[in-house]
Amino acid sequence: MQALLSFEQAPPIAAPFRFFLTAPLFSGLAGLLLVVNGGEIFASRWTPGALAVTHLLTVGFMLQVMLGAMIQILPVVAGANLRQPLRVAGIVHVLMLLGTLALAGGFLGVSEAAFPLAISFLGGGVIYFLLMAGLSLRGVPSTSATIAGIKRALLALLIAVMLGFSLTGGLEGRWPIPLLEVTRVHVAWGLGAWATGLLSAVAYVVVPMFQITPAYPAWFSRTFGIFLLAAVAAASLAVFGAVEWLAALLESTVVWLAAGYCATTLWLQSRSKRARPDTTQRFWRLAMLCGLVACALWGMVRLLPTLADDVAWPLLFGVLVLVGGFMSVISGMLYKIVPFLVWLHLQNRGQSRVVAPNMKAVLAEGKMTRHLYAHCATCCLLLLAVVWPSLLTRPAGLAMLVASAFLAHNLISAAGVYRHHAALVDARLAELAAGGAG
């Protein structure tokens, strides 16, 4: 896989970094909302606070990082160069920031204009990104499972966003739609086809590369994304067609496919050539284990229908998937991608004449470990808060604030290392040029 990467085509470091640096702001806002609202958030998955927290994490944190990563991945992995990447990143980033704040404000009832603004900003940002990504991918053959998976994930993102926009209009009463059914399908496309699809496509490269594991089995990487997309699409048709038994079967298929991905990744990690796992691997293992527990919970609810009426299980499932699963794996990837990008860009800036600092010098292991502990505490407290909301919701929110602060500090610190060493590299090159001229 590594031989397929084209690092010389990497966009300027500011393009992906702006997304990475602001993502912790939104997980921090989610934690603040938990502290302010307290246990009432966990009264139901449909409370305004729960919906706001969910979208601060999915759109504000997850989607921010994923779009930033895509700006980096498209040229390096797929050979698909975005036109004017800094301009694309700047426009998309601003629109995503404003749109996420407006969306959370809409759920909280801050203003009647919040939802229309959210549709405008988020719609403009995502559609513009998808248009530019589509143009860059035009004519790029699907020569690897990663490239094919990225293309499928972008299609899934478009569908998930369109469903989300229809939901905001439905909530405002602009048009009549079956809210529960559309929400059900929106979640399947957003967390299943888009988030899990993109995660798996990227993992085919980054897990063997950064965690020194064997490659994913060829049959798995070739078929997983296809089956995942087909199952989500078929489940959506069954939901809208009111064929409940078929919809439940297909949704269970999506869940067990995700369980298969988590189990396969854990199996590969167990065969890593590293003498001992680093913080990145621990984040990944936490994510995969939470994913498996979430899938097991889903299975229990299907086997014991009386659990389906309990308001707690969707909240437990959501915490396991969003915080324990996606936030963990995204944090783990950031702690490999960010130091690597700092090293890569400094190496390129040095023109093979000035050596870049080692990746471990960019971000110390101890700093990442502190974030890991705070994040684990957040996951545990949130799961317990679902059961004892009045007692533990605020402590869980405080833990999320602390974890977000650790992540923000670490990413800002890495950016500071880049700025400091970039100045040193430029000064050293100037010295060498002056010496050569003399």
UniProtKB/TrEMBL annotation:
Chain segments annotated as transmembrane: 12-36, 56-76, 88-108, 114-137, 149-167, 187-207, 219-239, 245-263, 283-301, 313-335, 372-391, 397-418
Domain of life: Bacteria
Keywords, ordered alphabetically: Membrane, Transmembrane, Transmembrane helix
Official protein name in the record: Uncharacterized protein
Source organism per UniProt: Candidatus Proximibacter danicus
